[in-house]
Amino acid sequence: MNKCMAKTLCIAAPIADTGKTVAAVNLSAAFAVFEKKTLLVDCCPENGCLFGGKIEPPTDPPGLAHALDRRDADLSGFIVKTRLDCLHILPAGSGLDRAVNNAPDSRQAAITLCNAVSLQAQGYDYAVIDTPTASSVLTEAALCAADELLIPLRVDPAGAEYIEEGLSYIKKLLETAAGLRKEGRTAIRSAKILLNCCDDIVEAEALLGLEFFDRIRGICLNICIPEDFRVNEAFWFGKPVVCHDITSSGAYAFLDLAALWAGEDETVKTEKQEDLQP
Amino acid sequence: MKLAREDIIKACEKHLIKLIVKNIDRSALKQAVREKCDLAPGSDVSFYSGNIVTRNSQIAYRLDFSVQANLSVLLDRTGEAIEITASEKLPEEGELEAEQSTEEGGRRIASEIAQMISEINE
């Protein structure tokens, strides 16, 4: 079983546009606001985390792909600094898809990537792993390295329309996690659903229907990520929302979420927000 | 001057009706059927049609359900029942079964996921 010193959160959902990368970037930044040393690990070949949290992004960044290409778990030289002192990013690296596809043994590739992530996460308070929608090897590696699983679920009218399909994909992800737990390859001990694009639990109840929502109520976090244009705007400016507009509803939600894990109280949260206001 | 497409507005109204139906308290509705219509409802109350109407100069939502008889339920914007009567519109063949099986499938998967996550969280 692979274990790293940092508390490692895997953000995964085998559904496109559910907000995995945005959640990973912004939750990591919120941890950093609380001065928790955080490593954001991009297991998604699109390199989206680097795009959303960059300061001066390298044009062709090496990263996780190097661990597979060179069989070298030490990726410390590829860690990218961000505008927040406590937030670092380990990029996916160019050609991560190709490296995974070329690996002769997919199980071994997942183990190699997991070991590389665990090694880099040492010395951090938190590691947050963003996963791709579709690659089983990369998702498996992320699940192996994590001790908590966070599943974003989009609950706006469009997402609610396809909720059944979305849940059937999440079921497959949970089956993978259960299989890895059985084999002793992951230390995941907690899993929660993060309701995305809805203001609060009442809105989720309305959109999904009470009878339906009651079935998943106990496994959903009480904090929802609201539909906030500032969150998307920040991403396209290459910033986490806490660096773009700390007073926005999206920033508040991610700070609440980070405080939930970091155990920060309301006073500390307000002080940090005041520090970051322009 | 046209500001929006008619079909889009109709689709939005249909969506609103669907969301209201999702949030109807089925057991309260069955109780109302027993008390107001003197009917014994079967295992489920199924929605098959709905519309936005006006009643006493107020917007109301007319929802047509099928139990063992067909009903028209009229409620105001605060969710209070205004009237429950026999519906004039009959459900089309296949409508009830399709709605029931889709909803049931979604709830089943939701329960399975809740169970799987609970096992991880134990």
Give the topology, please.
The complex is a heterodimer of chains A (278) and B (122).
Chain A: E1 7-11, H1 20-33, E2 38-42, H2 48-53, H3 64-69, E3 80-81, E4 87-90, H4 96-102, H5 106-121, E5 126-130, H6 136-145, E6 148-154, H7 157-161, H8 163-182, E7 190-196, H9 201-208, H10 210-216, H11 229-236, H12 241-244, H13 249-262, H14 266-276
Parallel strand pairs in A: 1-5, 1-6, 2-4, 2-5, 6-7
Antiparallel strand pairs in A: 3-4
Helix pairs in contact in A: 1-13, 5-6, 9-10
Chain B: H1 6-22, H2 26-37, E1 46-55, E2 58-66, E3 70-76, E4 81-86, H3 95-121
Antiparallel strand pairs in B: 1-2, 2-3, 3-4
> Would you identify the regions of chain A where 5 or more consecutive residues have pLDDT less than 50?
none
Report the portion of residues of chain B in β strands: 25-35%
- Order of strands, widest sheet of chain A: 3-4-2-5-1-6-7
Mean pLDDT of chain B: 81
Beta fraction of the residues of chain A? 5-15%
What is the makeup of the main sheet of chain B? 4 strands, antiparallel
Quick one: which chains have the greatest interface?
A-B, 31 and 23 residues
**Total helix count of chain B?**
3
Order of helices and strands of chain A: EHEHHEEHHEHEHHEHHHHHH
Low-confidence stretches of chain B: none
Basic shape of chain A: globular
Overall outline of chain B: globular
Mean pLDDT of chain A, as a whole number?
87
